[in-house]
Design a protein that fits this description.
12 strands, 282 residues
């Protein structure tokens, strides 16, 4: 069973108990302001204010959403119905569906009074060292020097053929099988959108730690933990209005959100969250 199928089943269970708010709006970054880590994510907002993020730069997703947003019929839509498009659709609708699913997750977290722990660092709390072989899924350019400075060996797995080759101190490959010898793995959360998660995870079984990070990693992590992921790192929006304003303007939004991390040891599980939410609701 795919991650998407399992994730949606968990959200269905939450919705069956409580129902979920309807969609208020989809917030998009301006196309002309996409650069660095700005403008890479959209945010879908529910009527209760819950926000769910999704990476929006796969293929032509941002362009299509920008041009079609008025015809998508999202305002007032059933959020769970939109979230189901993450499982059954592709392209820009898959992106929107994932954002909706993540917004429902935030709704569940808030109803259960659960907040993930703040993240200790930007490299998934891996603490790499000279004896480690770090596998990086997706080229996190800002993290390269930090990892190499620890003395760890680094192998990067990419989908883009033009990035493959030897670099100063590390190499980029298109072959996920090269992850098999890695002691620690850090991955972009884009794996959850580009249908590569279940293809690369089997090669990471030997890793002592496997961190999946990125602003769109705001999902229920249960099915990721079951696949061997040990940490899911995302962001927690603290100031919703300021965050939306920054996103819409293509400006940095970090001042309005915190980096957070979910680990197997510190996460109660989706069933326990629903039970807690039910008790709180009485």
């Amino acid at each position: 069973m795919s991650f998407a199928t399992e994730y949606l089943a968990q959200l269905e269970a939450f919705a069956a108990t409580f129902g979920v708010p309807r969609v208020r709006a989809l917030h998009l970054p301006p196309e002309h302001r996409v650069r660095g880590n700005r403008g890479e994510f959209c945010a879908l907002e529910l009527d209760d204010g819950s926000l769910g993020l999704s990476f929006v730069l796969l293929d032509d997703s941002l362009a299509r959403l920008t041009h079609e947003i008025d015809s998508l019929g999202l305002a007032g839509a059933d959020a769970l119905q939109v979230a189901r498009r993450y499982e059954r659709d592709s392209g820009h609708w898959k992106t929107v569906g994932f954002a909706a699913a993540n917004a429902i997750t935030r709704c569940l977290f808030d109803r259960a009074g659960f907040r993930p722990d703040d993240s200790a660092d930007s490299i998934g709390q891996m603490n790499p060292g000279p004896g480690d072989h770090v596998g990086m899924i997706g080229l996190f350019t800002p993290l390269i020097d930090r990892i190499l400075a620890t003395g760890a060996r680094l192998t990067v797995v990419e989908l883009k053929a033009e990035l493959a080759g030897e670099r100063l101190g590390y190499r980029v490959t298109l072959d996920p099988a090269e992850l098999a010898g890695c002691t620690k793995v850090i991955s972009t959360s884009t794996l959850l959108l580009n249908d590569t998660l279940d293809r690369v995870v089997p090669y990471c079984k030997g890793a002592r730690s496997f961190a999946l990070i990125g602003p769109s990693a705001g999902c229920l992590p249960d099915s990721l933990f079951a696949r061997g992921v040990t940490l899911v790192g995302g962001i927690w929006v603290r100031d919703r209005e300021a965050f939306k304003a920054a996103l819409l303007a293509g400006e940095p939004s970090g001042a309005h959100a915190s980096k957070v991390a979910l680990t197997v040891e510190r996460y109660p599980g989706w069933r326990a969250l629903i039970e807690t939410a039910a008790q709180t609701d009485r």
